[in-house]
């Protein structure tokens, strides 16, 4: 589950997951829901393999979202399905989506960066929660 919240001139993303895998998958969906108006218009036809190194949950979370934003900015990939496998050195993930097509996809917010400002990733008895501010 994820939700968006306003933050001055930026946008906040709050994500919850039963485990780290679900947290990271939801964070990815949240990011792309900010980038494109309707994720339902994006077909999971292209497969992308990703590897992120890191052991600290905050760094891993931020680096994961940074990599996804980088793929959008450089390859124009809109991703909608994610299978994330965290391990003791970081994460391995497979993501599915397609290249942005202006005839079918309406872009929403222009995310410039994922920030460390007020970043938090916490684990409690109910699972994981994270908050991150994105620069729009």
Explained architecture:
- The chain is an alpha+beta fold and 136 residues long.
- It has one domain (2-135): 3-Layer(bab) Sandwich (Archease, Possible Chaperone, Chain: A, domain 1).
- The chain is 26% helix and 43% strand.
- The protein contains two helices and eight strands; from the N terminus they run ββαβαβββββ.
- It has helices at residues 20-35, 57-75; strands at 2-7, 10-17, 46-53, 77-87, 90-99, 113-114, 120-124, 127-135.
- Strands 1, 2, 6, 7 and 8 form a five-stranded antiparallel sheet that branches. It has a three-stranded antiparallel sheet with strand order 3-5-4, covered by helices on one side.
- α1 runs parallel beside α2.
- It starts with a strand and ends with a strand.
- 29% of the residues are buried.
- The model has no long low-confidence stretch (mean pLDDT 94).
Overall average pLDDT: 94
Q: How much beta, percentage-wise?
A: 35-45%
Secondary-structure arrangement, i.e. CATH architecture: 3-Layer(bab) Sandwich
Helix content: 25-40%
| Largest sheet report | 5 strands, antiparallel
Radius of gyration: 14 Å
Residue ranges: pLDDT <50 for 5 or more in a row? Answer: none
């Amino acid at each position: 589950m994820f939700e968006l919240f306003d933050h001055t001139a930026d946008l906040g993303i709050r994500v919850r997951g039963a485990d780290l895998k679900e947290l990271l998958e939801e964070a990815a969906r949240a990011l792309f829901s900010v980038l494109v108006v309707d994720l339902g218009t994006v077909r999971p036809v292209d497969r992308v393999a990703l590897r992120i190194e890191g052991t600290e949950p905050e760094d891993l979370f931020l680096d994961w979202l940074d990599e996804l934003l980088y793929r959008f900015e450089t390859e124009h990939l809109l991703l909608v399905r994610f299978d994330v496998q965290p391990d003791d050195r970081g994460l391995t993930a497979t993501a599915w989506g397609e290249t942005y097509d202006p005839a079918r996809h309406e872009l929403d917010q222009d995310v410039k960066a994922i920030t460390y400002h007020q970043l938090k990733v916490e684990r409690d008895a109910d699972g994981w929660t994270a908050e991150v501010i994105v620069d729009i």
